[in-house]
Amino acid sequence: MGETLLDVRDLKVHFPVKVGGGLFGRFAPLKAVDGIDFTIIAGETLGVVGESGCGKSTLGRAILQLTPATAGSVAWLGCDLTKADKDDIRACRKELQVVFQDPLASLDPRMTAGSIIAEPLRNFHPDLPPETVKARVAAMMEKVGLLPAMINRYPHEFSGGQCQRIGIARAMILSPKLIICDEPVSALDVSIRAQVINLLMDLQREYGLSLIFISHDLAVVRHISHRVMVLYLGRIMELAERDALYAAPKHPYTQALLASVPIPDPDRERAKTRVILTGDPPSPLNPPSGCVFRTRCWKATETCATTVPALDQAAHGHQVACHHWRG
Amino acid sequence: MSTVFDIRDLNVRFSTPDGEVAAVSEVSLALKPGECLGLVGESGSGKSQTFMAAMGLLARNGTASGAVHYGGTNLLTANETDLNKIRGDRVAMIFQDPMTSLTPHMKVGKQLGEVLIHHRKMSAREARAAALDMLKRVHVPEAERRLDMYPHELSGGLRQRVMIAMALLCGPEVLIADEPTTALDVTVQAQILDLLREVRVQHGTAIVLITHDLGVIAGLADRVAVMYAGRIVEVGDVRQIFRSPRHPYTAGLLSCTPSLENRVTATALTTIPGQPPNLQRLPAGCAFHPRCVKVDDRCRAERPALVGDTACFKAEAA
Question: Does the beta-carbon distance from B269 to A198 stay under 8 Å?
Answer without folding.
Answer: yes
